[in-house]
Specification:
The structure holds 2 protein chains of 2 kinds. By secondary structure, chain A is mainly alpha-helical. In chain A, 65% of the residues lie in helices and 0% in strands. Chain A contains 6 helices and no strands. Chain A starts with 16 loop residues before the first helix and ends with a helix. The mean pLDDT of chain A is 93. By secondary structure, chain B is an alpha+beta fold. Chain B has 2 domains: 109 residues, Beta-grasp domain (Ubiquitin-like (UB roll), Roll); 132 residues, Alpha-helical ferredoxin (Fumarate Reductase Iron-sulfur Protein, Chain B, domain 2, Orthogonal Bundle). In chain B, the strands form 2 sheets. In chain B, strands 2-1-5-3-4 form a 5-stranded mixed beta sheet. In chain B, a hairpin with a 2-residue loop joins strand 3 and strand 4. The longest helix of chain B has 16 residues. The model of chain B has no long low-confidence stretch (mean pLDDT 92). Classes of the chains: A mainly alpha, B alpha+beta. At the A-B interface, helix 1, helix 2 and helix 5 of A face helix 1, helix 6, helix 10 and helix 11 of B. Bound molecules: protoporphyrin IX containing FE (HEM), iron/sulfur cluster and FE2/S2 (inorganic) cluster (FES). Protoporphyrin IX containing FE binds next to helix 2 and helix 5 of chain A.
Chain lengths: 155, 305
């Protein structure tokens, strides 16, 4: 609460929500925003998964090889462990594929729109450039590779 | 803004409900308020807001000036999308089924009151990128005898970026600006690239160092929301990626500006007069001397038949 006669500006920043909720604003013609949110979420999850992975790969040292072999044997069909692998595959495949696209765009300045004379209906060149095609390829490949990964993991 | 063109021809509902997010700086209170106004074909959201201000509630505060998408004052979040209020048709955001639409102040800008946002930090960041031509020979720049050479192709390299109207919509859509007050933001970074890429400018090293700052181009994550909302297709998202790749190459010692132009040599007056071709002096049937003597009479009735 501001004091009497005192005026205060409202800080109107959505903060971290803008990085995790792709629908915080209604942005037409902007699938790049969804890709950004997914890339951020999958990046963070990959760090967490890395810890889980390190913990699991140290079990032969802490619990012995028998436990390790037992766990691997149990990962057949649909179990919590194979489900976890399946989710991990989805996360890693998206992050990797989209990561390649981002490397091209952000580091090499490739696939973005060339400067041009804007004309009605005033759609920025980058939204029509080949990075958009790449993004659709990333989404399509992601689903295909994830399904293949699921087939391999569950059978 | 493709829909705007189509919706200009459509009729909005007879009356629309404008739901405005309000803020009082004295009490710190935020609230929504709904006003009903009559709509007409061609009415923009800014027109609707002005109707509210004139006929319903004088206390609504907003910023606008040109009413034609040129000054960049009327950026707002309309139905959840950052847009220029004067370039958004009511028929585009309201329909017979849903005659209500929302208007909020732009995000990522401090709100002064209601829809009015504070641009101090926005313009400070713009100033930080030195948005003007810098020449080594300042004496010549201050007292120029001729213009600097620039080919049409060289102009096109910077042309879309030079159309920025500083409306701030890109900043309000940016997810990095949403969580980081220090980030220079899409508008300033696009302008940084606009002057770095300008053949007439000589301070590209200086500007690339500004872009290399922790608050500079490297904070961009290419969500491209800036390019999606820009009403002038300035494409700040694309500009930042070009800036960023130039910066990377520059840091590896692989990038320098292709060419820097100078003043074109002044034309020496030769004293020679170029004669006009005889047919340019008089068209057939035109007597210049007689015309000079006679008063000009425009007979409207003769124009009609
Ligand atoms: C195929 C391998 C990978 C590629 C090509 C890749 C690529 C990238 C790129 C280009 C970015 C920058 C994204 C941006 O600018 O918004 C990024 C961010 C990130 N990556 Fe990866 N990455 C890979 C693997 C990994 C792995 C294994 C982890 C975790 C251990 C990881 C964690 C992260 C995190 C936490 C971020 C930051 C996300 C953000 O700030 O939005 N990445 N990755
Ligand atoms: S780049 Fe576009 S959205 Fe950003 S301030 Fe300039 S005109 Fe507005
Ligand atoms: S009032 Fe000038 S841009 Fe809308």
């Amino acid at each position: 609460m501001a004091g009497k006669g005192e005026r205060r500006f409202l800080k109107n920043m959505p903060g971290w929500r803008a990085s995790f909720n792709p629908w915080i604003l209604r942005l037409p013609n902007n699938p790049e925003r969804l890709a950004f949110v997914l890339h951020r979420i999958t990046g963070i999850l990959l760090v967490l998964i890395l810890f889980v992975h390190i913990t699991f790969t140290t079990t032969p040292a802490t619990r012995g090889w028998e436990f390790w072999v037992e766990e691997i044997k149990r990962a057949q069909g649909i179990t919590p462990v194979t489900l976890y692998f399946f989710i991990f595959a989805g996360i890693a495949i998206f992050h990797g594929l989209n990561g390649i696209r981002l490397l091209l765009v952000e580091f090499l300045g490739c696939c973005v729109g060339k400067p041009e004379k804007p004309k009605p209906p005033y759609i920025s060149a980058t939204l029509r450039a080949s990075q958009r095609t790449l993004l659709y390829i990333v989404f399509a490949l992601w689903i295909v590779l994830w399904m293949i990964a699921g087939y391999i993991i569950f059978t | 803004m493709a829909q705007a063109l189509k919706s200009a021809a459509r009729y909005p509902p007879k009356s629309v409900r404008v739901k405005i997010k309000r803020y009082s700086p004295e009490t710190g209170r935020e609230w929504w308020q709904v006003y009903e106004v009559e709509a007409y074909r061609g009415m923009t959201v800014l027109d609707a807001l002005l109707q509210v201000k004139e006929k319903r509630d004088h206390t609504i505060v907003m910023r606008y000036s040109c009413r034609m998408g040129v000054c960049g004052s009327c950026g707002m979040v309309i139905n959840g999308t950052p847009r220029l209020a004067c370039q958004t048709q009511v028929s585009m955001v309201a329909s017979e089924e849903n005659p209500e639409f929302t208007v909020e102040p732009m995000k990522n800008f401090p709100v002064i009151r209601d829809l009015l946002t504070d641009f101090t930090s926005f313009f400070e960041k713009h100033r930080k990128v030195k948005p003007y031509l810098i020449r080594r020979d300042t004496g010549e720049q201050e007292n120029p005898k001729t213009e600097y050479r620039m080919t049409p192709e060289e102009l096109l390299e910077i042309y879309p970026y030079s159309l920025c109207i500083s409306c701030g919509l890109c900043v309000s859509a940016c997810p990095v600006s949403a969580s980081d007050e220090g980030f220079l933001g899409p508008q300033a970074l696009a302008q940084l690239w606009r002057y770095t890429a300008d053949v007439r400018d000589e301070a590209w090293r200086e500007r690339l160092e500004i872009a290399d700052d922790e608050n500079g181009a490297l904070k961009c994550h290419f969500a491209a929301s800036c390019s999606a909302v820009c009403p002038k297709a300035v494409d700040p998202g694309g500009a930042i990626q070009m800036l960023r790749s130039a910066l990377l190459k520059y840091k590896l010692g692989l990038w320098r500006k292709k060419s820097i132009s100078g003043p074109v040599p002044p034309l020496e007056p030769t004293g020679e007069k170029m004669p006009l071709p005889p047919e340019a002096q008089t068209l057939p049937g035109v007597d210049l001397e007689a015309m000079e003597r006679e008063p000009v009479v425009i007979d409207a009735s003769r124009l009609l038949d």
